[in-house]
Each structure stands twice: as structure tokens, then as C-alpha cells.
Amino acid sequence: MSAHPTSEGEVAFDAPSAGKPCKTWFKIVGSLKESATPPIIALHGGPGAGHDYLVSLIDLYEKHGIPLMLYDQIGCGRSTHLPEKLGDETFWTVDLFIQELDNLVDHLGLRERGFHIVGQSWGGMLGGSYAARRPQGLRRIVLSGAPASMPLYKQACKIRLAELPEDVCKTLEECDKRGDHDSPEFKEAAGVFIKRYVCRLDPMPEPIQHTFKNLKEDSTAYTTMQGHSEFDTVGTLRDWEGWKDAQNIEAETLLLNGKYDEVMDFVMEPWFAAINKVKWVTLENSSHTSMWEDRERYMQLVGDFLSRE
After folding, report:
1. pLDDT per residue over 111-145, tens digit each?
2. Which of the following is catalytic: 79, 121, 129, 219?
3. Main-chain phi, psi angles of 40, to 5 degrees
4. Is 116 a known active-site residue?
């Protein structure tokens, strides 16, 4: 058992057009009352992946004393699920998740003391969009494996798919053409992609496994916004170009991706070109989940960035 203080809570969230009361579940590691250090708000991927795989960020509290807030975004985990909204493109929007994040920040009273954001994958896309609005209290932001452009991400996935064994690539293409994303052969072939470009650890850490379980249990947000697979974005995010607003980001920004990441360098580069105060590091020993694959180096980079005066 860890000795650090931990608390959990829920905050009501008035999600536009939800048709029912909604809530956001959150967990705080460390004490917001006893520490004057701006906390980290961690934004998970998916959409719909849940907070579980970001528990490795607790290292930042243990090593640097930075309080950490994890939460499940609406539609997944211990927050309100809305399976009845499957395919509702007017409901599942980036704005919805920005409103939810703002609601959390206000509930926790973080506007004056300040806060940092660490966003991974879709969470980084959300974090970049949020930072571009210059929210009061945002100090620094880490965008980890976060596409700056979904059209560029789709190009990167095509490149990564072409690097797979020919039989695996052929299976994925044939399954996709017939709309088969549930058969054992598709899942086995997609697993090869995931083991190369999402998480290269074997065995895969249990918290990352739980992420895939979350998506399987309720894929409403993921299917509507991303699509049926990790490597073919056909949902509402398909034309998303977050970098086009990134010149508005005032917070100091750290960009991170992995050498073997599905989010290849050219997918990150527009962030680097557009953001004013920015640093970019590609980790040599990881793919998409660097906070597990190259954990010590990742935590050193993020901890030093968020801790320095």
C-alpha cells in the first residue's frame, strides 16, 4: 500500500443535450490543501480509454511532489455512460470534453493556484485544444503522443501498416474493406499493430490492458469520434487539425513521442512549428505509451519540465 494521500470524488456535469444528469469521477493523489504546488490534470486517450493506464504518472507525485488528478472523461470508466448517444456527432464533440474539463477545474478551485495538464494521445489533442483557448490558471502543458493533425495521423498509420508483415497487412485491409472489425482474424492482426506501435512491452502492463477493456465495454465515444480501429479514423475527428489554433497557446509546452510511435514525428511537427514556447523530445525506447515503455526517462523529462522555476 502506498503512503501518499489519495481521495476520490464526483462532480455533476451539465452535458449539453445529454438528456439525463451526468457526473465526472475523479481521483486526486496528494493533497491540494496541503501543497501549494500546481497539480497535474491528466487527460487520457481514446476517446473512452479511461484513466487507468495513466496511473504510472503517480511517479511524478512520488519523485517531485506534484499532486496528480486523474479522471474518467464522460462516456467511460466510473463517469456517466451514454450508449444511447452512439453515432450522435452533434453530442460527441471536442467542445463537450473542454466543458467537462473546465467544470472540473472550477469545482476544484484551481483557477487562482494554477494547474498543469498532461495529455496523452486523444487526451493531448484535447489538451492542445483547451490550451489554445488560454484558460485561466493553466501553467504548463505536456502533449504526449498527441497528433497535431488527424489527416497526418492517418498517413502515419498507413506507413506503419506497410511496415507490418505482408500477411498481417493484407488481413487488416481485407477485413476493413468488408467492415469486419470483430472477427478473431481482425483482432489478431490488429494486435500485431498494437504490439509494435502502441505498447511494445510483453507482457502488456495490466493498467494498459484495462484500457482496452474499457473500450470494449463501452466504445460509444470512440466509435463515434475515432472509428472502429486504431489505424483508420473515420469518425468526427477525421478532419481535426488542432495545430491551426496552436499559435494561441501561451503556456509553456513539452511535446513527447516515441521512436516507434503510431504518432510519427511528422504528425507531431505542426505543434512544434505553431506553439511559441515549446520543447520536443522523441524517446528512443518506446512507441505510443512512453510513460510505461521508457518510464524512468519519461518521468524525468516531465517532472523536470513541470518542477523548474
Report:
1. 999 999 999 999 999 999 999 999 999 999 999 99
2. 121
3. -95, 135
4. no
